[in-house]
Automatic annotation (TrEMBL):
This is DUF559 domain-containing protein. It comes from Brachybacterium vulturis.
């Protein structure tokens, strides 16, 4: 994945840029060298620092740059060929994480520790500062709990950044213990919160179906648990959208009028207070009311 303001020296030469032009741009400050890269003022500062350490982003951090939903996390996930343990040059190293938010790449204010990733590679996979999505997801599958890995896969599928065939190929390359639970990833989840809640329900064998049609046949529920409990999962990006807020309340009122019980879960409930939220969901499930048909 290419990023504005960062170009590998090999690609710059392949672009037909002469050494004379490179020396001129370096001399006048148009760009600077962070070997083996040339960077300009457009380059995200957090990413430039990571490249300076001789590593590249992967896992959750690279997934965010690719435009996937990412659960909240700490640390800056990176990799380097033939390196699985942090050496002296990376010991205690910290950097400002870089994220894609609302279509823009930003550098976060708080520095994070560097987290080095495997599996080991013999050489760099290419000349881009951010590796291709298949390697990013492979690293994520080896690093993260299965439900967080599922969020990344389902995000890629839903946003059509990843085809089903590509997802299956990545999964086939993983060890069986990692691959087996991930075979149920889907393309119709509309948020990371939805994936997380559905995955939790499925893992505990509760009856849950995603994206079920409303009785009017025109809209879809996020999750239908049993026969009558609808769980709507709010994504973080819709927090401050008044139109989405109004549409969500209209959905809830319609479903309630048709006899469904509706619970709306916020991004914070799922990702920041998940343990507490799980306990309350279990208390509701144990009553068994979700198995009853909608009350009309």
């Amino acid at each position: 994945m290419e990023l504005r303001g960062i170009r590998h020296k090999t690609l710059l030469h392949a672009d037909g840029v002469s050494q004379h032009a490179v020396r001129r741009w370096l001399a006048n400050g148009t760009m600077r060298s962070v070997q083996p890269w040339y960077v300009t003022a457009e380059a995200p500062l957090g990413l430039v620092r990571i490249l300076h350490f001789g590593v590249r982003p992967t896992c959750l951090d690279a997934a965010s740059l690719h435009g996937l939903w990412t659960p909240p996390h700490t640390g800056f996930h990176v990799f380097r060929p033939r390196l699985l343990r942090v050496g002296e040059e990376l010991r205690n190293a910290r950097a400002h994480p870089v994220r894609r938010m609302a279509g823009k790449i930003i550098t976060l204010a708080e520095e994070q520790e560097i987290i080095l990733h495997g599996p080991a590679l013999r050489s760099w996979p290419g000349f881009d500062p951010v590796p291709a999505l298949d390697l990013v997801l492979t690293h994520a599958a080896h690093c993260l709990p299965v439900e967080k890995t599922a969020v990344l896969f389902e995000s890629g599928l839903h946003r059509r950044l990843l085809s089903r065939r590509e997802a299956d190929r990545i999964l086939a390359s993983l060890p069986q213990r990692i691959r087996r639970p991930l075979t149920r990833v889907r393309a119709d989840a509309e948020s990371g919160t939805e994936t997380t809640v559905r995955w939790w329900m499925e893992s505990r064998h509760f009856p849950v179906r995603p994206q079920v049609l409303f009785p009017d046949g025109r809209r879809r529920m996020d999750l239908l648990v049993g026969r009558s409990w609808v769980i709507e999962c709010d994504g973080r990006e819709f927090h401050d959208d008044p139109l989405s807020y109004d549409a969500d309340r209209a959905r809830d009122l319609y479903l309630t009028s048709r006899g469904y019980r509706v619970t709306r879960l916020s991004w914070e409930q799922v990702f920041l207070r998940w343990e507490e939220t799980q306990a309350m969901l279990l208390a509701i499930l144990r009553r068994g009311e979700h198995l009853d048909p909608p009350r009309r």
